[in-house]
Each structure stands twice: as structure tokens, then as C-alpha cells.
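INFO batch 0412 | record 1 of 1 | parsing
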Amino acid sequence: MSTMEEYLDKLKAAFAEEDIEEFNELKEDLLEQLAVCLEEGQTEAEVVARLASPQEIAADYYADLSLDAAINAKTSVVPREEIQDVFIQTQKKRMQRVLKTAVRVLKPLALLLLLCAFSFFLIYIVKELYEEKNLAGIPLVFCLLLSALIFQLLKSWFYEKKRVINYLSAITFVLGLGTLLVFSLTDRLLYTGRQYYKEIKLSSSDHASFRLDSDADVEITTVEVSSAEKPSLMVKGRFKESDIQKIETGTYKKKVDLTLDEENIFDTFTKTGRSEVMFFIPKGTILDDFNLKLTQGDLRLLDIQTKNFDLDLESGDVYAKNIIADEGHVESDFGDVIIEESAMNLAVKSESGKTVITGMLGDLAIEGSRGLSILKFLRSENIVLNNHSGRMILEDTETKKLKATATDGQVIVKRTKGDLFMSNEEGKIVSEENQGNLQMKNISGPIISIQDSKVNARVSSKSGFIKWLQDPNQAVNIEASTETGEIKNDFATIPSGEYTVKVQSKTGDVKILKKVE
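INFO prediction complete | emitting C-alpha cells
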């Protein structure tokens, strides 16, 4: 049957004359369904092919009719067992119809999703063949296996060619399994690139600059060479063919600007491993830029002079020494940053890990989240430390102005000269042997200060404990007060002079004690 008219004629013949009205209602429903399907672009033959046979529909109708008659009968003419059997069979058929309807609705959706996935892997294969000259292992396996599933879903719409479709499905499935086995045995499921080595030389040392952006794991080192040589860059490791071509066709006069192993959705099944990059910088050369943006790696940077020093690293460790720059920016999400004996105005942002800066000249700003910051032997106009929950330690430093703030971490400042401001919300503040104007402010955490020398200071806390230890040989007037807490002040009777310390807590305890060796 290819038309609805033929279908309805056979359906009408299956109904008794007295049930013609019920047939007409069913006929109207089927014609409405046909109209909707035609509007959606389906053919009449396709709609009719998906309908149950006229005999099945008529049988279902009379089974329901028999059940109603048996249930509503005034006498027990029909045995209970027959009623139960009819009821069970009717429920089974109804469930089958529901399942068939669900399959009819979900099958196109499943087919669409499979076709989308197949298209993605097919594009992946073509793109890798074109750009990398490599046949993608895992995407090829997925394409073959998905083809087998797609054929199985399509065969319900092609009854005449059901056997051919089953044959094609079996072939693609076997090919998929065979391809998986071959690529596994040859270790080619993932694309690993090609082993490659290249040294790139710049034409001049004047206004030379280096910029490298990589999403792969990379080990980077700098080497100072003779002033007679030209700046150069060496790359070594496994690289994608497209990256190799990018390196080979690049122009390098005074600038190296490379983006390697750029991560995208079509590199999901690419794994090139760790590569090595070395920068050779002639002694006395001042670079315009030294910029590294890496996803993962370890950096050892020595003896660099540059106008701009920029490092952006998600994970890995940085060790830098003897870096001279006008401006420096270092950002590390997960890893340690160590900078020694350098001169620059430096901004550091660290999510976690350890930041160690020693022997540096220049302004410093550190933004930390959970890590540890250790700062020693700094000479700076301004130092700004901002940590949320980590620990900051500043020692043996000279600065005109220090501002250290934290949310619930620790702020520890020792043997530092300058105008010092330290604040915290719930954490701990420790000041030891500092010189200059000292200001400490806390909400609920403890404040501890240890002083040998005289100092001007203001200390305040809302509910935290305050403890001040002062060398009695360097006695100063200390004004201490608390509204509801306990107070002890061993220096209350010292007359006011050049140096004054004011300590105030709203509800916490205050103890001003003589320091005992």
C-alpha cells in the first residue's frame, strides 16, 4: 500500500457494518496525521509505511470492545479467566503501541546526534590529513563504528534494501574493530607529531624581541652568549607538522613570534610530549620584549636585559635570576615562582604555590590567593602585597611605603624600614623589629608585635587579641585601651616623647609587656 486511500479501504473492510461510525472517527484521525506529516516534508508512502496493518488496528478495536462488554455484562456469561486474558493482551498491545511511538520519535533524534558526531570525526580526519599529513587513529575508528550504528537506524526506512544495509553495517563494524586493533598495535591511536630540531637566528641585536605562546608542555632555558653573536632561539622535540611548517616559513629579522601547539578541539587526540626551547642572548643585548605564555612548563631564565619581561604560566615552576627590565609581569596559576637578584618594577599574580623574591630592586606588587610569599632583601619605593588566605613573609627590606592586606591569611613583616601598613580580617599579623611608621589593623585575628627599637605605631582590632613586646631599654609611651577585654600595660607610666604607640581593641584583650631576653 502506497497511498492512504488504499490503506483506509482495507481498514474499512476489516470493520463490521454496525461499527462504521467508529471507523469514520479513526479515519479522520489518520487523515489529520497525514496532513501534519506532509507539511513536515514526508511523503504519503512514508507515512503509510509506518502505520500498523489494518488487520492489527481492527483486532485491537474489537479486543477492547470485547473487554468492555465482558466487564459491563449483567450476567456472568463470560468466564473471569477470559476477561483477565483479554485485559492482559489489551494492555500488552497498548504498551507495544506506546513503545513503537517512542521509538518513532526518538529514532530521528538519535540518528541526528549520530550524524553530528560522525560529521565531527570525519572533519577531524580530513583536517588532520590536510594539515598534519597524518591519518587520525581514534577519529577513524569512531567514524567506522558510528557508520555501523547509523546503517542500523536507517534500515527501518528502507525495507526493500534491509539485507544490503545489514551487510554494510556488519562490514563497517568489523573494519572499525580491525582499525582499532591495528592502530593500537602500532601505537598510532594518538597523533604524536614528528621529531624536529631547529635553530632560529635573528639578523641583529638592535630592538630584538622574543615571544613564545604554547599550550604544550615545554622546558625553557636562557643562555648568555658572546656579545659578538646574534640572538637566537633553538626548538627541539616532537611537533605537529603544521607547527613545523609554521617555524620553517616564518620570517625572523629582529623578532621571533611563535605560537606552537595551539590547543583547539581538533587536537583532542594529539599528544606531542615535552619539548625544549633555548634562548641564546648575547651579553649586553637589551631586548625590546621577552614574552612567554605557556600552559605547562618549567622555566630557568638567567641574565636577561629587556624593556618588558612578561611570563604567563598555568602550571609549572619559574626560576629567574639577574633579570633587568623596565616592567615585569609574572602570572602563575599552579607552580612556584622564584626570582633572585633582579631589578625591575614587578607585578606578580599567583593562584597557589610559592612565590620567593630576594635581592630585588624596584617596585613590587603581589596578588596571591592561597600560596606562600617569601620576600627578602628588597629595595623599593612601593610594595603592595594582597593575599586572600595564604601566608606572606617580608624580611630585611627597605621601602618608602608598604601596604600588605589579607582576608584570613598571615602577614609577617620583619626587620623592614619604611611606612608600613598591614591589615587583615580574620588572620594573623606579626611585626618584628621594624623601623618607621607602623600601622596594623585587624578585625578578629591576633596582632603580635616585637620591638627592640623605638617606633611610632597605631594598632587596632575589633575583637582580636593584641600583644606588644617592647625592649625596656628602648621604652616608649604606649597608650593602650579596650572596651570590654582585659588590659595589661607595663609602659603606662612612661612619659610621652618623640615616639608614641597607640593600641586599641574594642572587645579583645590587650597586653603590653616588657621584652625579656
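INFO post-check: The longest strand covers residues 286-315.
INFO record closed
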